[in-house]
Amino acid sequence: MTTTDVASTADTRPAVLEGPAAFPPLGSVTAEAMARLNDWVVAASQAHKLVAPLVDSAFIPEAYKPKLAPNASDEDRAYARQVAIANATSAVLLGLNLGVDPLTALQQIYLVKGRPGMYAKMKVALLMSRGYEVWTESLTDDEAVVCGRRAGSDRVEKITITMAMARKAGWTSSEMYAKTPQDMLWARAAGRVCDRLGAAVLMGLPSVEDIPDTIQVEATVGPRRTVGDILPAAAAAERAPTEPDQPPAAPEPERVTLPPSDAELRRMFALLKDVGITDKAESLTFVGGVADRTIASRSELTRDEVRMVSGTVESMKRVLAQIEQLGLAGDEVLQFAADCLTREVPTRATLTPADIATLAGIATEMLAARSAQPADTEERA
Q1: d(CA 354, CA 350)
Q2: Per the domain annotation, does 149 fall within a domain?
């Protein structure tokens, strides 16, 4: 059984809130339009309640955490936290409109230069969950060819992205094109295939990889300045020499890291054992992938990293349970993951947090599709 076999049996796109773009002109606002607006207000309130206690957790990406200058006041800290919660709430609301659960939305949707974007892998996952087919025809360090088609259609959309195209467009200014060229070229090609095939599903959301510059949700919040502070400073700047000697910037204070407790380490390794990651080398590989650095020994782990790994493994356990409900077991689970992620998945230890989030979204959609099918449809299948 393949991902496509299950996902394409029915169009199971969940009902989502219609955005303000669907509203009539203000001069002819109807009761129905106001009811839709009220739905958004309720959804925003619920999303805010969900997000507020999570922004301080290790499982929320750094992009959605408060950004503070070292000398920020208590007032600035409170303001930065409000900004972080507002940004995360917006991502959750956008995810709802796309049919994505809140935690997956926070992992996969980011603001880049003021525009929300989604990772190409998540776009592929969303389309596959709607019955679309997306596959890699060829992939090398110099070229990626990705194809796709809508469910029930014979028309294939084919996109080729080459390293020569990347250099011409200036994409190779990112060091990732030198480190992982295949991943970068594939993401560009896959994102374009999804954009052309599934505009109605993705609602025009661009790929993070296609929006220039780095991911940035909010600027660092430092001491606030008033007009009284700014005007004298501006006047002084005008009187200053044209080429003043600038002192070097003060180094950022080193972050204090705490070691994990023995109980936290035991819990982490017990969770890894529960999902079948028992080999020491595989455990360190998985932990390093979550921590985003090479880990040679468990003694190198910080408390935050151990907690992050434990949270990731708990998510993996939930995803594996969902996949088992689809009737898959053993090597079939790894094949399911490979089909969804469009790459080889030799062991569970090679799954990253982003992979787990992607699989969670696909498995959830497929289970919803199965439960929505009439009993006679299931019997014929």
Answers
A1: 11
A2: no
Task: Indicate whether this model's pTM tops 0.90.
Answer: no
Instruction: State which amino acid sits at residue 358.
Output: T
Half-sphere exposure of 346 (CA within 13 A, CB side): 3
Reported as type and span, the H/E element at residue 90 is: helix 74-98
CA-closest candidate to residue 316, choices 358, 375, 259, 344: 358
Write down how long the chain is: 381
Is 314 domain-assigned?
A: yes
Cα 261 from chain centre: 30
Domain membership of residue 105 (yes or no) is yes
Domain end position, chosen among 84, 114, 144: 114
Query: Cα separation of 19 and 299, whole Å?
Result: 49
- The CA distance from 170 to 282, in Å, is 37
Q: What is the phi/psi pair of residue 101, to 5°? A: -70, 160
Domain extent at residue 56: 1-114
- The pLDDT tens digits for 312-328 are 888 888 889 988 888 99
Kindly report, residue by residue over 156-184, the tens digit of the pLDDT. 999 999 999 999 888 888 888 899 999 99
Last residue of a domain, one of 75, 95, 114: 114
